[in-house]
Amino acid sequence: MSERFTPKVPVQLDPPKDDPITVEELSKCDGTDPDRPTLVAIKGIVFDVSKNPAYSPSGQYHVFAGKDPSRALACSSLKPENCKPEWYDLEEKEKTVLEEWFTFFSKRYNIVGKVKDATNY
């Protein structure tokens, strides 16, 4: 199953980090400050998506930048109100979609930390 998420162009990833990143710090990494990386968390795991312009302020996925949008990803939603970490109450089908997104991100982007005090691992 996970083979279908393998990037067409191989990506060299760094070893995953588990540095604690506060929600406040994560929110500052939304692509608007050129001195900070652009980060997206999924299920409390933080990915550096800085090299993908889709997460920049003019990109179609900017709504996810600087947040843990696990619920939005699981529901295939780009609505800002769905960009929140809570996903436990979702249907199994949506949880599967979320797991697929996590696999997709983990094959493309470096893991740079974990959301401090996150409860949605």
TrEMBL record:
<dbReference type="InterPro" id="IPR001199">
    <property type="entry name" value="Cyt_B5-like_heme/steroid-bd"/>
</dbReference>
<dbReference type="InterPro" id="IPR036400">
    <property type="entry name" value="Cyt_B5-like_heme/steroid_sf"/>
</dbReference>
<dbReference type="Pfam" id="PF00173">
    <property type="entry name" value="Cyt-b5"/>
</dbReference>
<dbReference type="InterPro" id="IPR050577">
    <property type="entry name" value="MAPR/NEUFC/NENF-like"/>
</dbReference>
<dbReference type="GO" id="GO:0016020">
    <property type="term" value="C:membrane"/>
</dbReference>
<dbReference type="GO" id="GO:0020037">
    <property type="term" value="F:heme binding"/>
</dbReference>
<comment type="similarity">
    <text>Belongs to the cytochrome b5 family. MAPR subfamily.</text>
</comment>
<feature type="region of interest" description="Disordered">
    <location>
        <begin position="1"/>
        <end position="30"/>
    </location>
</feature>
<dbReference type="GO" id="GO:0005783">
    <property type="term" value="C:endoplasmic reticulum"/>
</dbReference>
<feature type="compositionally biased region" description="Basic and acidic residues">
    <location>
        <begin position="15"/>
        <end position="30"/>
    </location>
</feature>
<protein>
    <recommendedName>
        <fullName>Cytochrome b5 heme-binding domain-containing protein</fullName>
    </recommendedName>
</protein>
<feature type="domain" description="Cytochrome b5 heme-binding">
    <location>
        <begin position="21"/>
        <end position="116"/>
    </location>
</feature>
